[in-house]
């Protein structure tokens, strides 16, 4: 059930085809939040981006208090197959997310890893982030 719900969310995010009937309430400032992130890589750079996450970034996320739910790539070309990486993080709160991202960005190891991985060019041309609050009936709260 958890995987099916996340995949539906990812499909909607990647394709942009869902039309909302009503504007959702803004996520609470405190309480667990999910962050959906989509990275678009330049042509030929997705493998290098995946390697950076696999070999370094996941451990850095953990070091800075971010929990990884999972990573995905779109399966269809029109949704970004071969150029997009999508992942979801869990944070204890929006404030915790802000603090984690700040410490992550300032981490000397992260700066070194990013610089080394981009010696032949940047690995992302666009980064999108959406914070999500779980509904009262979500199995992932």
Question: Could you characterize the architecture of this molecule?
Answer:
This protein has a single domain (2-16, 31-132), classed as Alpha-Beta Plaits. Helices cover 39% and strands 21% of the residues. Strands 2-3-1-4 form a 4-stranded antiparallel sheet. Helix 2 runs antiparallel to helix 4. With 141 residues, the protein is of the alpha+beta class. Mean pLDDT is 86; it is low at 1-5 and 10-28. The chain is flat, with a radius of gyration of 16 Å. The protein has helices spanning 2-15, 46-63, 94-106, 108-117, and strands spanning 33-40, 67-72, 84-91, 126-132. It is built from 4 helices and 4 strands; from the N terminus they run H-E-H-E-E-H-H-E.
Compact overview of the structure:
By secondary structure, the protein is an alpha+beta fold.
Notable traits:
alpha+beta, Alpha-Beta Plaits, 4-stranded antiparallel β-sheet, flat
Layout of helices and strands:
Blueprint: H1 2-15, E1 33-40, H2 46-63, E2 67-72, E3 84-91, H3 94-106, H4 108-117, E4 126-132
Antiparallel strand pairs: 1-3, 1-4, 2-3
Helix pairs in contact: 2-4
Output the strand order for the largest sheet.
2-3-1-4
Q: What's the quaternary structure here?
A: single chain
Q: For the report, how would you describe the main beta sheet?
A: 4 strands, antiparallel
The total domain count is 1
SSE string, helices as H and strands as E: HEHEEHHE
Structural class computed from helices and strand pairing = alpha+beta
> Unreliable stretches, pLDDT < 50, 5 or more residues?
1-5, 10-28
The percent of residues in helical segments reads 25-40%
